[in-house]
Amino acid sequence: MANEGPTPLERFINGILPENPTFRQILGICPTLAVTGSVKGAMTMAAAVAFVLVCSNIVTSLLRRLLKPHLRILVFTLTIAAFVTMADRFLAAYMYDMSKLLGPYVPLIIVNCIIIARCEVCASRQGVVTAAADAVGQSIGHALGLLAVATIREMLGSGKWFGIDLGWGAAGFEQYRWGVMILPPGAFITLGLLLGTINWIGAARAKRAASAQKGA
Amino acid sequence: MKNSYLGQAWLVLVLGLTFGAALAGVHVALNEKIEQNKKNEALRRIPQLVPGARAGNAKTIAGMTVYDAVDDAGRHVGYVIRAVGSGFNDKIELLIGLDASAANITGLYVLDQKETPGLGSKITDQDWLDQFSSQERKKQGRSPLSTAKQLDAKKGEPGDSEIKAVTGATISSASVCRTINDAVAKIRGELGEPRRTSK
């Protein structure tokens, strides 16, 4: 069992960029589109997802030898739902305004594909340390994805970042404020352009590597 | 044993019980704080729900929390009912503003909801809630909603005691109206028929 699959470090690093949930796996797109109107909301969502992901990966990994193949998805969902409800109640108690802003998107973490995918791909096959490292890596990757989309949307849509006014108002920003960026279409436009850019960079890099090999 | 239902499903059952107990614990630990948050928000909303109101004193009428809305001088100007009804997904909690004699609805606010994002969640949009506000209705030349008539959510142009339903969310809209009808009926039962208050 020990030598099966990637090591904890590989799992951790993979989650951040090489297998970034948002830009490489295109998972967890619902919160990426829905709650990235402000960086604060996006980061709260990322923290809630991180909590659920780490907890359910650890629990699933501990239970992995007891899982029955045809009942495993049920166990994953049950575990995830329990931790999501805890996160939701915690937000309602200690971050009430944020909980109102995120609304039904917090309970919807239950159906966030990143978490169930990590349970299936990593936690149900590998040990607790690997599963935890994997969860932390994927959480950071997810947070970075949300941060990228939310930064662009909040800066162009409201002229702020993390709720801090960037002082663009003085430069006549109000007149050119890109209102669509805080609306749902802004999320699609931003995510599409970011995905395109990342793929374009990736393709250009592959091309350069190929021509360098030919030249050598 | 290995192939019996119990032999296969015991893990799911044990986990269900364990997580259930854990969630009950979370509920016991956090519920008081969550309730306090909601109460604070309800009190903050009172001035928007009853024209002229500044503060509210909570009391219990017919099993519901009702705030006696008072103005700066402490005079009674209306009521705010905290009502709960079932929506499309989960409970919808409303704050319903009534005038001094509980004869007309003066305002509405959605305190808590988990309706479908983008459809049912539009019941929290200010434009939609303005249909219940006596001040907004006055601006449009319409009379306030009477508590004597049953409210109804309707597609298309609404009549006198009707509300324009949110497109694609008729059930959420109707749930709000039903919750208001139930709460208002209870309040009127307790307070008696509204009479003209002497000025």
Quick recap of the structure?
The complex is a heterodimer of chains A (216) and B (199). Chain A is an all-alpha fold and 216 residues long.
Keywords:
heterodimer, A: 216 residues, mainly alpha, two-stranded antiparallel sheet, B: 199 residues, alpha+beta, two-stranded parallel ribbon, 4 helices, globular
Distance between the termini of chain A: 41 Å
Major sheet strand order of chain B: 1-2-3-4-5
Strand order of the largest sheet of chain A: 1-2
Number of strands of chain A: 2
Largest sheet of chain B: 5 strands, antiparallel
Indicate the low-confidence ranges of chain A by residue numbers: none
Helix content of chain A: 55-70%
> What is the number of helical segments of chain B per DSSP (H or I, 4+ residues)?
4
Going by helix content, strand content and strand pairing, the class of chain B is alpha+beta
Number of domains of chain A: 1
Greatest contact pair? A-B, 26 and 24 residues
Shape of chain B: globular
Order of helices and strands of chain B: HEEEEEHHEEH
β-strand number of chain B = 7
Structural class of chain A: mainly alpha
Task: Calculate the terminal CA-CA distance of chain B, rounded to whole Å.
Answer: 79 Å
Described by its quaternary structure, the protein is heterodimer
Task: Describe the protein.
The complex is a heterodimer of chains A (216) and B (199). Chain A is mainly α and 216 residues long. Chain A has one domain (8-215). Helices cover 69% and strands 2% of the residues of chain A. Chain A is built from nine helices and two strands; from the N terminus they run H-H-H-H-H-H-H-E-E-H-H. In chain A, strands 1-2 form a two-stranded antiparallel sheet. Chain B is an alpha+beta fold and 199 residues long. Chain B has one domain. Chain B is 39% helix and 24% strand. Chain B has helices at 5-49, 126-129, 134-139, 170-191; strands spanning 55-61, 64-70, 76-86, 91-99, 105-112, 152-154, 162-164. Chain B has a five-stranded antiparallel β-sheet, with helices on both faces. Chain B has a two-stranded parallel sheet with strand order 6-7. In chain B, a hairpin with a 5-residue loop joins strand 4 (91-99) and strand 5 (105-112). The model of chain B has no long low-confidence stretch (mean pLDDT 89). Classes of the chains: A mainly alpha (216), B alpha+beta (199). Chain A binds chain B through residues 34, 63, 66-68, 71, 74-75, 78-79, 81-82, 85-86, 89-90, 92-94, 96, 103-105, 107-108, 184, and chain B through 8-9, 11-12, 15-16, 19, 22-23, 26-27, 30, 33-34, 37, 41, 89, 113-118, 121.
